[in-house]
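lol so apparently i was supposed to do this last week
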Amino acid sequence: MDNLSLYIHIPYCKRKCNYCNFHFSTNFATKKKVISAILKEIETRRYEIPYDKVESIYLGGGTPSLLDVEELQQILNIIYRSFRVDSDAEITVEVNPDDLTMDKAKSYIEIGINRLSIGVQSFFDKHLEWMNRVHSAKESQVSIQIAQDVGFNNISCDLIFGIPHCTHQQWTYNVQQLFRLGVPHISCYALTVEEKTQLHYDLKKSRIDPLSDLHTIEQMEILLDLMEFNHYEAYEISNYCKPGSRALHNSKYWSGLPYLGFGPSAHSFQIDTRRWNISNNHLYSNLVLNSEQYFETETLTLSNKFNEYLMINIRRVEGFSLSYVINNFPTYYKKLIQNIEIHLQKSNLVLEGRQVKLTRQGKFICDAILADLFA
Ligand code: SF4
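anyway here it is w/ iron/sulfur cluster bound
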């Protein structure tokens, strides 16, 4: 039997970052009810998937650090009562820098949280203001210090590159600052324009200049050089870590293992099906508490599974396996080999044994390569 991962979505934020299209609300009126519904959802779904043990629990959002410690503890307690949680399970909470006080960080340790993912994004106030982030650069620095002082060894920080007016020197400083602070895991994302975000709206109204692809590509080049030079493993296209500090939760998800997601908008996955909860806090809590259907389910077709396998694994340092493809998706094997060949010749992909991996230049056009390989 496989091990299981759990994800809990906390759908509240103090402010709307200009690039964000995740599900969250800045209206806290429903908070108590949504938490009650999450507790009920966790308890009622405990037998849904056969599993050996729960290996990772991830509280994401939204902003989970906006919950009171007692509320987080309630969620963890119900998980411990409902699931077999491994004594070494990785338990991560996403934190916004302005929320993390010394007392809160100590309480996190007391209730069993052993990993923090801190949304730093930049160490320059003008970039944070441009993105409408709620915290300051100083608060980011202090939050990392607090986390380390109370004993968190397992810390991840997020950064964003390609922000307009963020010079290459400033981007270099952002990454190096995390090296200096000894952060063992770093996630770096290119700023992208998603529909229904303030950024999308401002661009459409020409209130800001279009983002520059070249600027983003150059900052990714800088990032890859810095990570290599500082011996951080690029174990996934957006994730870098010191040896031995890979995120267990993400690694499980990328390995195609089952996971259960609780809370508004959360997704769940098991071999043949994917399901997702309604992305509306008010409706979600009413439906769950009234024992009515609050989710939709999709049965995955063979081509869905094939595409998903490629999409997830091409981003990993290990790449995807031709042996896995021939064993699980023989229908698509011949065509895949032909399509891979084109990118091998262009040096976008490399074949190592039976593993197909992105080259450094391939990382810059990953989406275009995938479009060529999909069923
Ligand atoms: S804090 Fe995170 S989830 Fe909330 S708006 Fe900003 S990016 Fe989105």
